[in-house]
Q: What sequence folds into this?
């Protein structure tokens, strides 16, 4: 209930923002429909072209200022094109609506009245300037860094060699993801989601998590942050900032062996396709043992509550 | 009695003729399969030879292990050649050989897919014509099937020409690689060539015998020939698929690429069947799209109302077939991708999360646009029905649902941004939109899009009809309830997917897809039953539809073509720098992966080239019209799939 009240007050509610955005978009669309329906009932007929323009401009404003942090231009461009397509589908869905939409455009093109002739003249004069402005804008030298298509999760090698031991990524398992009997288990993390790693009598799994946590806070948290959200004290010295493990798109999407490989080999060990290798993560195999790497990975999954990807 | 005997005799002769015909057609297949291949090297004794027959000084048969099946077999082929960059292995013009091969391959594939798909439609439609009791309707179906095969026939010779060009391109630009492939697939290639002859023969008899075998039992023989035609076509396609499947996931050879004498292992690689299924379904969707575009072209250039009515109807039927096969296509694709992951994890990640992931985003755009266009076409179709106005007010809500889902569907996981934007955003993942970039959101979005498309179709079916069955209110309530629960289930599971492990999350797609398919099958079936004997508010005025609808059909076909080019490129380029994955390395200067921009331009070029040539085929088709289309005048009752009218 609290969450709904917060949403209604216009606040972006942490943890609910993705669904909140969709609800807001739906609410705005319904509001638009209701307003024009009401105006229609009152005898004020708003032309389809005006409705469409209003809706499009509103969507631009919404995606530009409502969502925080700001959406990159490339995504806003996708959204704007999608909105335009939607608007086109809507206005041209029936012949009546399509004719209404085209009416002012034809009126201006035909110049049937003094006003439309004036608009036509102004448009004809302004159009070359608009084209000129757009050309100028796109040709203007820019000092911005170029856009990079970065492959965040490159394909891993079939196997990786760490401290002289070869690990086949598709078949290896963490030796510390074990149940109380010491056997590998995919279920053990679920069992101890709320476990206490500090408990003296903690099961082996939780003890490994504790050890992993200690390694994490000795080595990793400076960049990846106390909450594992990629906002450690050094984070903003780097571009891009370190990976945010609490995001649904990072470790939650990967096999445990993939994360093991990335930790062991670091930024310098990224394969060719990971151009431009924008990562300063050290190859941790130079500082940690194989066991320590497995434990820290174990801790990352336990702490974030995500489960590694498995193939069964 | 005598007449009966005569008829029975005729039947027996017809059966015997057909049986002999089928037997002769399949003979090459039986003859060549057990033969096996000898490979490039002098073959030692085959494994079937009795061991005692070897003289004492004979070299022992060298055995090796199959890289995929892990079985042992006698080495009967030479190792895969180690090529070097130069005129011996890679003779060339002053141009990138790979691009030439790309164009030749893609054009052959487009035409090949088309001529394999269209006879399947013909078979179904001709059969419908035979079993339909209404003679006028039967004639219309027959005419439609004839129209289909007529387009296919001209395209058929072009397919053969393009196939020849493709082989020459291989032989002249990649002789060593092609030589290696041919040394392994020799019997398959010969079978392929013989089957092609059989396919041509059957197709010509099928087409030219259309009028002669018009009546009675001969019509059954004629439609049986289409079954034979399609069987040959499918086997042809599967044989060709075995080559590309071998290049991607080789089997039947050892780790040096030496053939081990078992041709079935070489054909039946792990990706062969998923590719077969995906291609058959894909061809049907593509074929439907191209025929729909042909009908749209003829509609737009039509001079009379009768012509417009006929081609409007033809476009609708073809679109319907195309979309019917579009819906299961993602599931076949899912199976293929699952097998790719199972074969090599790196290959799967290179496709879906790595180097080629951006191309999958473009694919998402195309899939979304296919569904949007289909919806748009159906909504436009409401215009040709009197009484359908009552449903038009819902379109705006459906547009909203579709576009919102499309936005979620398209939001990339890794966004394209300037370093400045990256800093402003505070990380690679956007805290709001990043959540739309993962599988849970995508599954929810695409299932909602498909379910909404089903809803549009149900709305279209009802256009000018009001159900009169007693249980109509209950049926309506059931439909309403089913779709409401479906939307809640799909979206609810999508949200739930964020809170559970990946392996369970992957499993959630099963109930989501089951929900969508239930809506499709139960919804459409129930609606069709409810509309039996329904009150008509007005006639369906075929031909009286906006030109926008016809452009939508052309758009649909273009999207199919573009997507096919794109996915073919992705599947092929995932081998990276291998001719045959992990067996034969590509050492030409073009072993790199092209930039996305270049690949997109090449795909567009191929699409454009195909459409220019197919327009020529359409034009040729219109030159040879002897029969005027059967008049389906405005307002006249014409057959429509799924019993909608």
A:
């Amino acid at each position: 209930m609290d969450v709904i009240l917060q949403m209604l007050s216009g606040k972006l509610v942490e943890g609910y923002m993705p669904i909140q955005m969709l609800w807001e978009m739906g609410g705005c669309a319904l509001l638009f429909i209701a307003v024009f329906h009401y105006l229609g009932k009152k005898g004020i007929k708003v032309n389809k072209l005006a409705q469409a323009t209003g809706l499009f401009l509103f969507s631009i404003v919404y995606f530009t200022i409502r969502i925080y942090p700001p959406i990159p231009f490339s995504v806003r461009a996708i959204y704007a094109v999608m909105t335009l397509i939607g608007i086109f589908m809507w206005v041209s869905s029936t012949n009546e609506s399509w004719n209404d939409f085209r009416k002012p455009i034809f009126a201006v093109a035909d110049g049937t009245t003094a006003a439309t002739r004036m608009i036509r003249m102004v448009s004809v004069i302004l159009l070359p300037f608009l084209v000129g402005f757009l050309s100028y804008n796109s040709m203007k030298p820019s000092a911005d860094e170029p856009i990079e298509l970065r492959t965040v999760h490159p394909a891993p090698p079939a196997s990786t060699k760490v401290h002289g031991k070869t690990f086949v990524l598709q078949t290896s398992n963490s030796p510390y993801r074990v149940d109380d009997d010491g056997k590998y288990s995919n279920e053990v993390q679920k069992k101890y989601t709320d476990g206490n790693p500090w408990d003296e009598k903690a099961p082996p799994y939780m003890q490994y998590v504790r050890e992993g946590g200690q390694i994490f806070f000795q080595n990793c948290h400076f960049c990846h942050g106390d909450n594992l959200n990629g906002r450690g004290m050094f984070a903003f010295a780097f571009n891009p900032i370190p990976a945010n493990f609490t995001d649904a798109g990072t470790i939650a999407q990967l096999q445990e062996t993939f994360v093991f490989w990335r930790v062991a080999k670091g930024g310098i060990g990224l394969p060719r396709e990971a151009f431009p290798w924008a990562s300063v993560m050290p190859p941790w195999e130079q500082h940690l043992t194989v066991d320590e790497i497995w434990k820290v990975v174990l801790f990352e999954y336990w702490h974030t509550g995500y489960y590694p990807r498995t193939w069964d | 009695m005598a007449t009966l005997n005569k008829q029975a005799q005729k039947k027996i002769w017809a059966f015997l003729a057909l049986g002999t015909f089928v037997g002769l057609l399949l003979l090459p297949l039986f003859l060549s399969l057990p033969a096996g291949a000898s490979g490039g090297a002098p073959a030692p004794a085959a494994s079937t030879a009795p061991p005692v027959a070897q003289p004492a000084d004979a070299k022992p048969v060298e055995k090796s292990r199959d890289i995929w099946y892990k079985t042992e077999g006698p080495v009967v082929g030479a190792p895969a050649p180690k090529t070097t960059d130069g005129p011996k292995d890679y003779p060339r013009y002053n141009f990138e050989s790979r691009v030439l091969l790309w164009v030749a391959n893609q054009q052959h594939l487009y035409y090949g897919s088309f001529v394999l798909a269209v006879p399947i439609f013909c078979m179904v439609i001709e059969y419908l014509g035979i079993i339909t009791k209404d003679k006028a309707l039967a004639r219309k179906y027959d005419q439609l099937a004839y129209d289909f095969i007529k387009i296919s026939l001209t395209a058929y010779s072009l397919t053969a020409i393009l196939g020849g060009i493709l082989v020459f391109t291989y032989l002249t630009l990649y002789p060593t690689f092609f030589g290696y492939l041919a040394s392994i697939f020799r019997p398959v290639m010969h079978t392929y060539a013989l089957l092609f002859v059989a396919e041509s023969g059957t197709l010509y008899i099928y087409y030219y015998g259309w009028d002669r075998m018009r009546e009675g039992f001969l019509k059954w023989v004629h439609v049986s020939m289409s079954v034979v035609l399609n069987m040959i076509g499918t086997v042809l396609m599967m044989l060709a698929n075995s080559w590309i499947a071998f290049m991607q996931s080789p089997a039947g050879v050892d780790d040096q690429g030496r053939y081990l004498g078992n041709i079935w292992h070489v054909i039946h690689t792990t990706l062969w069947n998923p590719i077969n299924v995906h291609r058959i379904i894909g061809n049907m969707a593509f074929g439907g799209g191209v025929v729909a575009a042909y009908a749209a072209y003829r509609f737009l250039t039509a001079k009379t109302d009768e012509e417009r009515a006929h081609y409007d109807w033809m476009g609708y039927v073809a679109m319907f077939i195309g979309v019917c096969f579009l819906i299961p296509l993602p599931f076949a694709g899912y199976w293929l991708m699952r097998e790719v992951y199972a074969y090599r994890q790196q290959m799967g990640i290179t496709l879906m999360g790595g180097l080629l992931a951006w191309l999958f985003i473009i694919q998402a755009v195309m899939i979304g646009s296919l569904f949007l266009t289909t919806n748009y076409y159906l909504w436009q179709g409401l215009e040709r029905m009197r009484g359908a106005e009552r449903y038009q007010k819902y379109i705006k809500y459906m547009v909203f649902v579709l576009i919102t889902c499309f936005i979620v569907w398209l939001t990339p996981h890794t966004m394209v941004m300037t370093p400045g934007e990256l800093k402003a955003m505070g990380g690679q993942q956007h805290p709001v939109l990043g959540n739309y970039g993962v599988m849970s959101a995508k599954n929810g979005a695409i299932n909602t899009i498909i379910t909404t498309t089903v809803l549009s179709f149900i709305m279209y079916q009802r256009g000018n009809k009001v159900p009169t069955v007693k249980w109509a209110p209950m049926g309506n309530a059931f439909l309403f309830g089913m779709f409401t629960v479906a939307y809640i289930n799909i979206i609810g599971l999508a949200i739930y997917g964020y809170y559970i492990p990946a392996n369970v999350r992957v499993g959630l797609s099963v109930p989501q897809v089951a929900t969508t398919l239930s809506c499709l099958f139960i919804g459409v079936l129930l609606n069709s039953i409810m509309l039996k004997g329904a009150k008509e508010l007005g006639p369906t005025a075929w031909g009286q539809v906006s030109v926008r609808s016809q452009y939508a059909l052309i758009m649909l076909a273009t999207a199919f073509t573009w997507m096919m080019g794109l996915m073919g490129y992705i599947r092929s380029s995932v081998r990276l720098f291998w001719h045959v994955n992990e067996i034969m390395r590509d050492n030409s200067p073009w072993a790199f992966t092209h930039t996305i921009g270049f690949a997109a331009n090449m795909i567009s070029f191929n699409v454009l080239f195909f459409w220019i040539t197919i327009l020529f085929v359409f034009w040729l088709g219109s030159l040879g019209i002897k029969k005027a289309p059967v008049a389906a005048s405005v307002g006249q009752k014409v057959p429509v799939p799924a019993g909608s009218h």
